[in-house]
Sequence to fold (201 residues):
Amino acid sequence: MPKIKYTKTELKQQRDSLRRFERYLPTLQLKKQQLQLEVRQVELQVEAKAKEEEQARHNLADWVKLFASPIVFSDYLRIIDVQQGTNNIAGVNIPVLDDVKFERVMPDLYRTDPWLDDALDMLEALSRLRLERLTLEEQQRLLAQELRVTTQRVNLFEKVKIPETRENIRVIRIFLGDQQTAEVARAKMAKDRGKRQEEAA
Fold:
């Protein structure tokens, strides 16, 4: 606990600090609630994307034997651009997947297997799902990090700063009250002494 001065100026500063803390705390609490809600929503989205990806992989199980043939899929399909934007949630800039552009080379219909087009469609969908899930996981990480910091701030204000400032105000008021009482007592004693000296003279 920092050392405080037992003065009226210090009392005013402590009261101003307390008002500032009490005004700022509800904003922090609101931000914490909003972040908790957003983190939960993104968690649900991540779970949904993971299930979608798992379903797509499950659908690929029928193709696994075909994929064993020596085909280099990167000759026919590759990601050429991933466009990401940002969104601001409770003061946190999070990435948002806007678009994924693929370059697709038309396979030679005479020299490639007939199932290659369908396989490329599935690979494209799976790649897009994975990028969507990775973006959501990054959103989740950033929001959870901000939630942790905001929770620490809320706890600092609730459990340390506000109680400490209230205690400082209480101690300073007691000290100043004692000082004032002592001054009144000294003034009374001085007045009594002055009366006694007048009567003696």
